[in-house]
Write a structure and sequence with these properties.
The protein is α/β, with parallel strands linked by helices. The protein contains six helices and ten strands; from the N terminus they run βββαββαβαααβαβββ. The longest helix has 17 residues. The structure holds adenosine-5'-diphosphate (ADP) and magnesium ion.
């Protein structure tokens, strides 16, 4: 594995159920994503985007195949560690369509939660959080509650929270679906800046064609496999 590669998946298969109710979702996907890359993952609804993201994120167990995260092989027809939770916590930042901020904690408490769970001191966690909130131009909201923020502001906090752990990989499942087009562009540009500044891979599921030109590459699930498309030459693909 080269040191520019962040994610590599080989012959990944995912089936749900058995017998009559067997659903074959991913049937032999192979691809890789480099550090610093913002990749859009597109496919029709039900095609397996979330399932694929959750397998890369060590949440959903594949049926078979191989997954490398950074230089660590984490799955080879079985999880290679009992501690998939540790991998998630240390390597991966998740961003969802809804921000899922904890309503009874203020902004900075939401952002410091994960680093503190990872054993980082309260003071250092707060420094990390303030740095991120500054980076996202939302430091003045550090002591506000989520309910006092707009949708775009909440999503920026959710992205800050995903980064607080200094993850190597950011997995974002339709992060702009709840935002208007201007806010969506802001969020995607932010994800691209993160990919470059922090040298991490960002995989973003999106249904929004307008976001594709902002991405470096498009991965499309087609016939239960994953194909790579140059974002600049994409045309109409969703
Ligand atoms: N836990 C599960 N049990 C059974 N089938 C599932 C489960 N999760 C997802 N699926 C099925 O897998 C397919 C892909 O789902 P999903 O990954 O959510 O698609 P997408 O995110 O592209 O809309 C769908 O047919 C869905 O019904
Ligand atoms: Mg989905």
């Amino acid at each position: 594995m080269s040191d520019t590669q962040s994610i590599r998946v080989e012959n990944l298969v995912k089936r749900f159920g058995k017998g009559e109710s067997l659903v074959n979702v991913i049937d032999g996907a192979s691809f890789s994503i480099n550090k610093g890359e913002l990749v859009a993952l597109v496919a029709p609804s039900g095609a397996g985007k979330t399932t694929l993201l959750m397998m890369i994120g060590c949440v959903e167990e594949p049926t078979s195949g191989t997954i490398y995260l950074g230089d660590e092989k984490v799955y080879d027809n079985r999880w290679l560690t009992k501690e998939t939770r540790k991998i998630r916590r240390e390597k991966i930042g998740f961003i969802f369509q809804a921000h899922y901020l904890i309503p009874f904690l203020n902004v900075i408490e939401n952002v410091t939660l994960l680093p503190q769970t990872n054993g980082i001191s309260k003071e250092e966690s707060q420094n990390i959080a303030m740095e991120l909130l500054n980076y996202f131009d939302i430091a003045d909201k550090a002591h506000s509650m989520s309910s006092e923020l707009s949708g775009g502001q909440n999503q920026r906090v959710a992205i800050a929270r995903a980064l607080a752990n200094k993850p190597q990989i950011i997995l974002a499942d339709e992060p702009t679906a709840a935002l208007d087009s201007e806010r969506s562009i802001d969020v995607v540009k932010m994800l691209k800046k993160i990919a470059i500044d922090q040298n991490v891979a960002v995989v973003m599921v999106t249904h929004d064609e307008d976001m594709l030109p902002l991405c470096d590459r498009i991965l499309k699930i087609e016939n239960k496999k994953v194909i790579s498309i140059d974002a600049k030459k994409s045309g109409k693909i969703i």
